UniProtKB/TrEMBL annotation:
InterPro entries: Cyt_P450, Cyt_P450_CS, Cyt_P450_E_grp-I, Cyt_P450_sf. One of its GO terms (molecular function) is monooxygenase activity. It comes from Solanum bulbocastanum. May have a role in maturation, such as during flavor formation or other metabolite production specific to aging tissues. The lineage of its organism: Eukaryota, Viridiplantae, Streptophyta, Embryophyta, Tracheophyta. Heme binds at residue 441. It is found in: Membrane. It is a single-pass membrane protein. This is Cytochrome P450. Belongs to the cytochrome P450 family. One of its GO terms (cellular component) is membrane. Its main location: membrane. Coiled coil: none annotated. Pfam families: p450.
Length: 651
């Protein structure tokens, strides 16, 4: 529809644009593909993977080439040398931003840090972000939040591991990054209420779409009416209104004297305090604050999630690197108890882990094309004239795969960074995933801290496998449309809480058997309740004299052994020797389960309290005959279908 309207409108404006096009032509531009009149190279552009499209053009036209998108001149840089020229040597000449409709609208007409043109206002806002919001001290103060959320994530994955469930790591990492950002920036946890989380996720997703959307008016100012006709402008306005309402709600909560303690000292609180105390050279307005919050919200949540998922992707495709980095982490950290997480201090002395992250940033930069810059004055690059108001793209993805810089650039080799001083913080132009210079990402420390903490704990606490039937060669490394992350799923094996899988399976099977045998259910509940009345929770000492409960558990082990495929168990069962091998759910001998006592205790405690505190019914319409006892494929014998029951409190 957009293209149809555009081509209909072209003849109308032909007479107005043609003279200007002739006047603006120059013979000293970098080489590039020949475009069509009026639209330039837009018809050739691959919007799904622009970094790859530009990389292919650089193979033909060189490390600097030119394009034209409508009336907008474009320059693309694909070498570290030229990147240094643009981002450092001539930083001032190339440090402004172009005006794009979606970005300008959501940033309150460019009042943020990322999309604001270079001027006095931007310089002061940059100082605020560096000194007050993302300083090393401030990032460190937020570490308890990061560690708390990573701990929650590890527990969630542990639960999935207990049931041999597939983990959608992409969704999980987006959730983690978003939750951390919301707590750091706003002092709220959006995952507490399902409705609020759904509202927030939809708002974030829609914002990302309209922020980076294609607006005809960005390239053809005369044709802005097309954006209105197609509904894009209305969609943008609606999203802006919803975002503004969200910000207003947050501000209202923060200025409330009875606000939650979690809102004290977060980024929004700091900005409001700076406004109130007038501690900045410029008078901060609420619109200024909302614009900065937009940067934190939209930029912070996606990039960390993408970086973690890409790193896990690379490690799954390179098992030797996975093994090596896990060994480094696990050898350096003393295991304390069943579940713990690494803290940020423990991560600092892991050179191979750090090398893995650098190599991941090299191969898979979260933002493969740096946020485009706009030239403010006439300048020269490689002898070519660059006119003012030219858009300059730096292809960080192509630079990081340049064979003139990197040996075997397409391979994942963390070892290349072990004896190298190259870092990703903007001083080494071979590796610039976060940009460089005065327009470099101010929140790099916060993003990297979250990424390192989450990734190190994923590698420390779990072993990872691909879903059944997949090979490492099947892992797709293509990016998704309108997204800087992609979907990947893993099966996880919990190496720190190995017993939880077995215990969970046994409890579920016991409840399944009891629901199919109401008389047995009634008898075991009577035994428990007669012993304790309504005193509360059954503890481990209370269980020892419950003979019928123990008989129920033994019968469950007989019918539904948690590990029926254990080779040694099967051999002993089929040997028919008249010893205690009739019932060996945990194996026997020196290879028997060393944690049998812990496992049985957990099973007895969980099951006794479930039976003591609640009466249980099947969901409406189901009969006991409908309860399935089919087995799910896996090492541990889980029910194929989930056991969903209605609970009623006993007291």
């Amino acid at each position: 529809m957009i293209l149809f309207l555009f081509f209909v409108a072209c003849p109308i404006i032909l007479i107005f644009l043609l003279p200007k096009a002739k006047k603006s032509s120059t013979n000293n531009l970098p080489p590039g593909p020949i475009g069509l009149p009026f639209i330039g190279n837009l018809h050739q552009f691959d919007s799904l993977a622009p970094h790859i499209y530009f990389w292919k053009l650089s193979k033909k036209y060189g490390k600097i080439f030119s394009l034209k998108f409508g009336s907008t001149p474009i320059i693309v840089i694909s070498s570290a040398k030229l990147a240094k020229e643009v981002l450092k040597t001539q930083d001032f000449a190339f440090c402004s931003r172009a005006s794009h409709l979606g970005q300008q609208k959501l940033s309150y007409n460019g009042r943020d840090i990322v999309f604001q043109r270079y001027n006095d206002y931007w310089r002061e806002m940059r100082k605020i972000s560096v000194l007050h919001l993302f300083s090393h001290k401030k990032v460190k103060l937020f570490s308890p939040i990061r560690e708390d959320e990573v701990s929650r994530m590890i527990k969630k994955i542990s639960q999935q591991a207990s049931f041999s469930q597939i983990t959608n790591l992409s969704n999980l990492m987006i959730s983690l990054s978003t939750t951390i950002i919301c707590r750091v920036a706003f002092g709220i946890s959006v995952d507490k209420e399902a409705r609020e989380k759904r509202r927030f996720d939809e708002l974030l997703e829609e914002s990302a779409i309209v922020l980076t959307g294609f607006y005809v008016s960005d390239f053809f100012p005369y044709l802005g009416w097309i954006d209105k006709f197609t509904g894009l402008t209305n969609r943008l306005e609606k999203n802006f209104k919803n975002l503004d309402e969200f910000y207003e709600e947050l501000i209202e909560k923060h200025v409330d004297p009875n606000r939650p303690k979690s809102m004290e000292g977060d980024i929004l609180d700091l900005l409001l305090q700076l406004k109130k105390d007038k501690l900045t050279p410029i008078d901060l307005t609420l619109e200024d604050i909302k614009a900065i919050v937009m940067d934190v919200l939209l930029a912070g949540s996606d990039t960390s999630a993408a970086a973690i998922v890409w790193t896990m992707t690379a490690l799954m495709k390179n098992p030797k690197a996975m093994k090596k980095v896990q060994e480094e982490i696990r050898k350096s950290v003393e295991k304390k108890g069943d579940i713990r997480i690494l803290n940020e201090d423990e991560i600092q002395n892991l050179p191979y882990f750090k090398a893995v992250i650098k190599e991941s940033f090299r191969l898979y930069p979260p933002v493969p094309l740096l946020v485009p810059r706009e030239s403010m004055e006439k300048s020269t690059l490689e002898g070519y004239e660059i006119q003012p108001r030219t858009i300059v793209h730096v292809n960080a993805w192509a630079i990081a795969r340049d064979p003139e810089i990197w040996e075997n650039p397409e391979e994942f080799i963390p070892e290349r960074f072990l004896n190298s001083d190259i870092d990703f913080k903007g001083q080494d132009f071979e590796l610039i995933p976060f940009g460089s210079g005065r327009r470099g990402c101010p929140g790099i420390a916060l993003g990297v801290a979250s990424m390192e903490l989450a990734l190190s704990n994923l590698l420390y606490a779990f072993d990872w496998e691909l879903p059944c039937g997949m090979k490492k060669e099947d892992i797709d490394t293509n990016t998704l449309e309108n997204s800087i992350y992609w979907q990947i799923q893993f099966i996880i094996k919990n190496v720190l809480v190995a017993g939880s899988d077995t215990s969970a399976a046994v409890v579920v099977w016991a409840m399944t058997a009891l629901m199919k045998k109401p008389k047995v259910m009634k008898k075991v509940q009577e035994e428990i309740r007669k012993s304790f009345g309504t005193k509360g929770i059954v503890n481990e000492d209370d269980i020892h004299n419950m003979s019928y409960l123990k008989a129920v558990i033994k019968e469950t082990f007989r019918l539904y052994p948690p590990d029926p495929r254990n080779k040694r168990i099967n051999e002993k069962i089929h040997s028919r020797r008249k010893e205690d091998y009739e019932l060996i759910p945990f194996g026997a001998g020196r290879r028997g389960c060393p944690r049998i006592t812990i496992g049985i205790t957990a099973i007895e405690l969980a099951l006794s309290n479930l039976l003591y505190a609640f009466d249980w019914e099947l969901r409406y319409g189901l009969k006991k005959e409908d309860i399935g006892t089919n087995v799910r494929h896996g090492i541990i014998m889980h029910k194929k279908t989930d056991l969903c029951l209605i609970s009623k409190k006993y007291f």
